[in-house]
Amino acid sequence: MPSPVDAPILTADAMRAAEAACAASGTSLATLMERAGAAVADFAWRMAAGNPVLVLCGPGNNGGDGYVAARWLARRGVHVRVAALAEPASELARAARRAWGGPVEVLGDDLAPAPLVIDALFGVGLSRPLRKDLAARLRGLAKRRVLAVDVPSGVEADGVQPWAPALSADVTVALGALKPAHVLLPAAATCGKVVLAPIGIEAQSSLRTLPRYECDSPGAAAHKFSRGMALVRAGPMRGAAGLAASAVLRAGAGYAILSGASGAPLSAIIAEDGDHFAERLADERLGAVVIGPGYPASDALDRDVAAALKSGRALVLDAAAIVSALPRLGGAPAILTPHAGEFARAFPGLEGSKIDRARAAASKSGAVVIYKGADTIVAAPDGRIAAAWPGCPWLATAGTGDVLAGACAAMLARGDEAFDAAVAAVSWHISRARAIGPGLVADDLVRA
């Protein structure tokens, strides 16, 4: 399910720093816990629909949130049971348990289930995988609806470790800000629907979820060149370049040229089979150039990439063109669109989460990087990041990456800064795919 739009994402360390800053400004951690527990209770009340609720509490502050939620649910007349993994280990959690005041069961093998389970065991504080015996006990509660507090227990919040939770969530309540695990595989797939609960924390971050796509209409005085002109260089597999050129027009540019092809999929595309590439690169009206779709590594590709780089035009580089361009990219405005295999070839040896690796690749290359996949990440050299989970699963088909490259060129050609152009293109791509839905093929994305 779609993540909250244009929402901040904080790592575990950044979240702790934000909480500390909030406390320093006069809002106590106890107040934050009370707000968090009340928010969890509100979502749980709606999910339970009058049925009993079982709250699983861990020893830390995530467990404290669970005790607060239990108290609020009981006030609403919900039949609530609380089961603890261990005694509270923090003063905040101990105070929350005392305020709960009701019985606390042991989270053992004989724990009776309930229609709704609130997972408040570990949250973002987990530093190692769940013990096997605990995971087995939790799996005994499977097939119930699960609401996770911050992240499902067993998930590493920063998305670096591929740990799996014993209980996948139907709904995850992100407290104050989203966490990287909410937007990165494999963890994101276990979070269910992620909802953001503001609890009074100033969550300022250069890492955010994708904004909602807005289609801007051309102005009354617009013409084909003012809307943007883009050039797509065809390789041996010309259908891929044709998809990219079609996307240039469908994503909002006014003029598309397909260089190195005798025909085009749309009559409005200017197809040029002769060697006019250098001449087109010199056209002052040209706003962006696409190289790479359907163009495998070769001397011809290297020559075309070199010519495009020399022209100083804004570039969209896909597939083998990325590796060809990297050693000489310099300061040319560029968007790179690698999938996982291409990313590994272009940027070997990078470590950390997908967000960390995308950020490092953008910094190293000086280009905006769209690290494609179900959990697409858009990274700028200055550290800005947009996370596009969950995308659209129907995009997992041949040619959709070529369409994305063309959409990037359209946004660049109309004058967008490279990061904004990449974010707009990814948003357009996903929005269009969701509108088409089952059975999508790449050609559908560029049809009316």
Automatic annotation (TrEMBL):
Residues at which K(+) binds: 62, 119, 153
Entry annotated with the keyword Disulfide bond: no
GO biological process: metabolite repair
Swiss-Prot/TrEMBL cofactor(s): K(+)
Domain YjeF C-terminal: 207-448
Catalyzed reaction equations: (6R)-NADPHX = (6S)-NADPHX; (6R)-NADHX = (6S)-NADHX; (6S)-NADPHX + ADP = AMP + phosphate + NADPH + H(+); (6S)-NADHX + ADP = AMP + phosphate + NADH + H(+)
Protein family (similarity comment): In the N-terminal section; belongs to the NnrE/AIBP family. Belongs to the NnrE/AIBP family.
UniProt EC number: 5.1.99.6
Entry's cofactor comment: Binds 1 potassium ion per subunit.
Pfam families noted in UniProt: Carb_kinase (PF01256), YjeF_N (PF03853)
Top-rank EC class of the record's enzyme: isomerase
Gene: nnrE
Protein residues bound to (6S)-NADPHX: 61-65, 123-129, 150
PROSITE patterns linked to this entry: YJEF_C_3 (PS51383), YJEF_N (PS51385)
Protein name per Swiss-Prot or TrEMBL: NAD(P)H-hydrate epimerase
